[in-house]
Design brief:
Chain lengths: 258, 260
């Protein structure tokens, strides 16, 4: 029996569980998205932000909101490892442990994709006149959207592998996620950071979130003014492979599995 | 009953923390598990029972030694071996977002059963384990006894040849324990090889064909309950057990299969 059968069954199981809480999750995500777009996209323009800033902000928000959903999963997974240990049931199934960890990252990425994809029509409605269809490269947007969410899945898996337990989770948002997000081009472009200081621009390139934001904006708003689309895509795949490889090694050690 | 199903060869397990050795849980354990037998692993808390069964279930690796199935290391044929093993852990690790019935079906499907097969098997096991009225319930809505019944049923979903039951009756009242004994007796009659860990002596005596006494990470003796009492000239298994626990250095007459 192929262990891919187990892999897809596990994803199917997660999707059924996700379907049951989808409504609540979508309302929460949509509400957060709406408040962010209104505050940053509209009120900031009243404070002097350039025209088209709302569309710029909406695309970044769509790209990155799956991250909120996925980081929440890190806590759930850590709680499981320290409590119910449902993962141990999965680890004795006819599937290799590496593939179990790959399934976890993929399953998280899929759920985050489903939630974020629904923000596209909402975002378009909110900034109807500013976000022009003509600027969107649909295939590039789709490729970058999928890659960004796969990166979130891989990154969350890596976080699960390096965070010691639930007690360390409290500092995760404040110390790591918030700076990574805010300095990852959530409210500004990489070009603005580079113009402010070349050093700041180059340091920003270490942050994978910059490639998520810039890549999505290059695909959905046009290449001009953003980091090259292919550079963003390539760099995200480097991060996906690095995070997954390191997380797999760490988790095998952490869970002491075969 | 004479054919060897699983052969444990000098298996050791050491737990490390920050590369420092913390505890040697198993010390060169060697043991043969016979096809179709119920082997009771008996020992006090921390004796190494759970560690041994978690290695046999391939949840954790052994630090040294090997486990052979059909004469080949289980690690060489890991996925095939896993597909014939059913593991019922000590703690109820059940997916909370799914109902108990769905948990059973998904477990079966992960072992390659079609949806129809899995649903049929779920109904069959629900009837056998008196779980029918709880199939729609969530884990938090059922009592400890039913959780354990469910865990055993889940371990049996894919019709395994070896079932590992890790302290299935711990913390349950005597009435529920007796009910679970009936369940385990049915397993015994069906010819499945069963490894049962317990620290209840009556349970081990009642259910096991052979008893393996583990103390401080080593196998002290393996034999039938009747032979153990006879060899040590004791009236009950409890007295034999206490002899080993109180005097772990006591000379051991070992007629158990494969205990090198």
């Amino acid at each position: 029996m192929s262990s891919w059968i187990v892999f897809f069954q596990l994803i199917r199981r997660d999707l059924i569980a996700f379907k049951r809480e989808f409504r609540t999750k979508f309302i929460d995500t949509a509400l957060l998205f709406f408040t962010n777009v209104m505050a940053f996209g509209y009120f900031l323009q009243q404070e002097g932000a350039h025209e088209g800033y709302a569309a710029f902000f909406v695309v970044g928000a769509i790209a990155s909101f799956g991250f909120v959903e996925i980081v929440g999963k890190v806590g759930v997974q850590l709680a499981d490892m320290g409590g119910d240990r449902t993962i141990f049931h999965t680890l004795v199934m006819p599937i290799t442990s590496n593939r179990v960890f790959l399934y976890i990252a993929t399953s998280w990425a899929i759920t985050s994709m489903i939630l974020s994809a629904l923000l596209f029509p909402l975002g378009k409605l909110l900034v109807f006149t500013e976000w022009h269809w003509g600027a969107i490269s649909f295939w590039r947007t789709a490729v970058m959207f999928i890659t960004a969410n796969l990166f979130f899945g891989a990154f969350a898996l890596w976080l699960t592998s390096v965070i010691k337990g639930m007690t360390s989770l409290n500092s995760l948002w404040l110390r790591y996620i918030a700076p990574m997000w805010m300095f990852g081009g959530y409210v500004y472009s990489w070009q603005s950071a580079y113009d402010l200081s070349h050093m700041v621009g180059y340091i920003s390139l270490i942050n994978p979130m910059i490639y998520v934001m810039e890549g999505m904006r290059a695909a959905a708003l046009g290449q001009e003014g953003y980091l090259p689309f292919w550079l963003c895509l390539g760099m995200l795949w480097v991060y996906i492979i690095a995070c997954t490889t390191h997380a797999t090694r760490r988790l095998r050690h952490k869970l002491d599995c075969i | 009953m004479n054919q060897v199903f699983l052969s444990i060869k000098k298996v050791s397990k050491t737990y490390f923390e920050k590369r420092r050795e913390m505890k040697q849980a198993l010390k060169e354990v060697s043991l043969d598990i016979l096809d179709g037998e119920v082997l009771g692993l008996l020992g006090v808390n921390g004796a190494g029972k759970t560690t041994l069964v978690s290695i046999l279930a391939t949840l954790h690796p052994a630090t040294a030694g090997d486990v052979q199935w059909n004469g080949v290391s289980i690690y060489q044929n890991l996925l095939t071996y896993r597909s014939v093993v059913g593991y019922c852990p000590q703690h109820p690790n059940i997916e909370r977002q799914l109902s108990l019935g769905e948990n059973l079906v998904f477990s079966g499907r992960c072992y390659g059963m079609s949806k129809r097969e899995a649903v049929e098997r779920q109904k069959e096991l629900a009837k056998e384990f008196k779980l029918e009225e709880y199939l729609e319930a969530n884990i938090d809505q059922v009592s400890g006894g039913y959780k354990q019944r469910f865990l055993i049923a889940r371990a049996l979903m894919h019709r395994p040849r070896l079932v590992i039951l890790d302290e299935p009756t711990v913390g349950l009242d005597s009435h529920i324990r007796r009910e679970l004994w009936e369940v385990m007796t049915k397993l015994k009659k069906s010819g499945i090889t069963v490894i049962l860990t317990t620290h209840y002596l009556d349970e081990a005596e009642h259910l096991s064909d052979r008893i393996c006494l583990i103390h401080e990470g080593t196998v002290r003796t393996v034999d039938t309950p009747k032979n153990l009492k006879k060899q040590h000239q004791k009236n009950s298994l409890e007295e034999v057990f206490l002899k080993f626990v109180d005097d772990p250095e006591a000379e051991i007459f070992n007629s158990g299969a494969g205990n090198e």
